[in-house]
Each structure stands twice: as C-alpha cells, then as structure tokens.
Write a structure and sequence with these properties.
The structure is a single chain. This protein is mainly beta. It has five helices and 19 strands. Strand 6 and strand 7 form a beta hairpin. The mean pLDDT is 93.
C-alpha cells in the first residue's frame, strides 16, 4: 500500500513534466483548461507499473496540483491512452483509476512531448525454461535458453520485435526428447504489432510476423471493459501457418488455419483475482472451452487453468509469472538499453497433453502479468487501499 499526501505546489506544468522526464517517464505532456489539469506519462523506467505510477503521482502532487481544480493523469502504452487517474482537487479527494479517458486525450495529445519513446531501442533478455516428464528412465528432460529481443517503437502504437534464441542446454536423448533442431541458434519472435483504440473503450492489437509454437501469420486481439470495470470481454482471431526455423532459414508448408477465442472476465478486487471463461478454436481445428483463475501480486501472478475440447481429454494445470530484477532502469537518450525482461513464467501441463489445445503467443512480452499491469482496479488497489 502506498500513501499519498496531497500538497499543492507552485511549479507550472512545464516544470512538472521536466521532472517527470528526468525520472525516466516517456511521452510526457501537460495541458490545462478551466476545469482540469491534464498530464500524460508512460512508465518505462520501472518494471512494476504501480511503482512507476506511484512515483509520478508523488511528483505531481508535490509540484503540479492546482487547488480546487481536477487533476487527471493519463497513462499511455506506446503513446496510446490506456487508463486515467483522476483527483477532484479538494484536500479530501482521493485518486480514482479507470479505463475511461474522456475528451482529455484530444486536448493533451496536441501538446509537445518530452522524452519521446519514438525510435528508442530496448534489448531485453528473455530466459526460457522448459521441462517435461515423458521418459520413465529420467526424472525430467529439460531445455534452457537465453533469448535476447530487440524491441523498438517506430510510430504511435507500433512495436517491432526481433528475437534470437540462444540455446544453453537441450536434452535430446531418450523417449520424447527435444528435437535436435532446438540446439541451433535461430530466430524467435519476429513481429510488427500495432495497438489501436476504438470507440466505446475498445482496445485492440494487430500483429503480423513469426510467432512461437512454430506459427507465422496475422493475429488480432480486442478488449472491452464494461461500465462496471470488474467485467470485461475479450476476443481474438488468428490466421496462421505452420513452419519452423532451421538456423536462419524458414521452412513452411503453405497451409493456413483459423484460430479464435471469445469470452468474458470478472476481476475480484478484494483479492486481485481474475476469472475468465472463453470458447476457443485451437490449431488443429478442435473447439473447446477454457477457464482461468489468476491471482495478481506485486511481483508475481499465480493461478490455474482447465480446458475441454471436442475429441480430446480434459486438461489443465497451473501457471505463474515472476518479476525479474533490476526493477528500475532508465534509458539514456537514444542509447539502447540492455536489461533482463520484465518477468519470467512457466505453464505446467498437468495432463501431459501434447497434441490438442495448441495455441501461440504473438510477442515475447505477452504474459498474464503484463496483461494485468495496467488494470485500473489493480492499480487503485495497490496504490491506495
């Protein structure tokens, strides 16, 4: 829990945005009208979003509040608005977080940005660990690699990801061992993604390129919270083909298939638990349902899942994601920043199902912890409750 004491400072908006930029926040702007003062921030320096937002609030409350005037902070991702935090301006008010942006973005987006994210490069090291218990002569067969990924934003909402898989250990001996090709240095994710915001608070992302699980193609994701933001809807569709990298040569069969997912979620604020139920079509064309329950902590997300599809046995397991240090690292102008990925996770397949329920991820940064990092209910719980 973080406690914020409101002090109305004397600095104007230019001074506050300068301080925020020096702290490492990007795409910083401000504007003001007769009703409210508006700031935009994008947290790049702090891996834990609520930590970064807390630092921004502390700075704005110390130097940039205007008494009896509302203050709104719009938190962006790739320079597109994601959530807002609103303080009504009285000394008894508290900050309220929401997906609702209103007309404030149209006003403030015209202002000049400080510390723009455009053309800035991150090189993130993604550790990957996989293990399986399929051979009775061995306790586990394992595979471990370090996968550096270059990530860069070229325009608003857009991100390029280029990753290389560097195998460190691959067990290729015994029954159901990992294929020999996994010992080769090869590309991982190579994608271009474009985020976009639609009317009625719909957020979306379209991604094209080479995904994981031997898939390439195009994928579109949509998310919409309801008026009661504990409830939301999610939809996804992909048109992908099967292929694999043999060193740096890509081989594929030219056949493509549709996959899709559609369902709803409920977020339980008391324990920061997200429940979701979805109907899905997987890579072999089988259709089924999936249930997830994930609890989110500051430095980890932990939960379990269950699945049932036509022609396949029921399956399930647990999953977790853990934040990796260092937890703070600013970029220095346009010098590429090299650091560990934000987090690392594992999915445990309790049913040892290897044929059915196959899915894919479109970016190296996609995971359950990142998906929840800008949930306004979660942010408000961690900062103010």
């Amino acid at each position: 829990m973080t406690c914020h004491l409101t002090v109305w400072g004397q600095s104007n908006g230019d001074g506050v945005t300068e301080k925020l930029a020096k702290l490492g926040f990007e795409n910083v702007r401000w504007t003001e009208n007769e009703f409210e003062r508006i700031y935009t921030i994008e947290n790049i320096a702090y891996k834990i979003q609520e930590t970064g937002i807390s630092k921004a609030i502390e700075t704005i409350q110390k130097y940039g509040m205007s008494e009896n005037k509302r203050c709104k902070i719009i938190v962006t991702r790739q320079d597109l608005p994601e959530i807002s935090l609103v303080h009504e301006g009285s000394k008894t008010s508290k900050w309220n977080a929401s997906y609702e942006i209103g007309d404030s973005w149209q006003e403030v987006k015209k202002e000049k940005k400080k510390n723009s994210s455009q053309y800035k490069v991150d090189i993130l090291i993604y550790p990957q660990l996989s293990f399986q218990n399929m051979d009775i002569t061995k306790v586990y067969q394992a595979m471990f690699s370090l996968n550096p990924a270059l990530e860069v934003s070229l325009w608003k909402g857009m991100k390029f990801t280029g990753q290389v898989i560097l195998p460190l250990y691959v067990d290729t001996e015994g029954y159901a061992a990992y294929p020999l090709i996994y010992k080769k240095v090869r590309p991982g994710f190579v994608t271009v993604s474009q985020r976009f915001n639609l009317p009625y608070r719909v957020r979306g992302k379209a991604t094209f390129g080479f995904f994981n699980n031997d898939q390439h193609g195009i994928d579109i994701q949509l998310f919409r919270p309801f008026h009661d933001e504990r409830f939301s809807m999610e939809a996804r569709a992909g048109y992908t083909g099967l292929g694999y990298w043999d060193k740096f040569k890509y081989k594929y069969n030219g056949e493509y298939q549709w996959t899709w997912s559609c369902g709803g979620s409920f977020y339980w604020p008391l324990y920061d638990v997200k429940f979701s139920l979805k109907a899905e079509q997987y890579l072999l064309g089988e259709r089924g349902v999936r249930f997830d329950m994930i609890r989110h902590f500051k430095y980890a997300s932990v939960g379990f899942y269950a699945m049932k599809a036509e022609g396949a046995s029921s399956n399930g397991g647990f999953r977790f994601q853990v934040a990796l240090p260092p937890y703070k690292q600013k970029r220095h102008k346009y010098i590429p920043r090299i650091t560990m990925s934000k987090n690392m996770g594992l999915i445990y397949n309790a049913g040892n199902e290897r044929k059915y329920y196959r899915q894919y991820r479109v970016e190296s940064s996609d995971n359950i912890m990142e998906d929840n990092s800008l949930n306004p209910i979660y942010i408000e719980n961690k900062l103010f409750n």
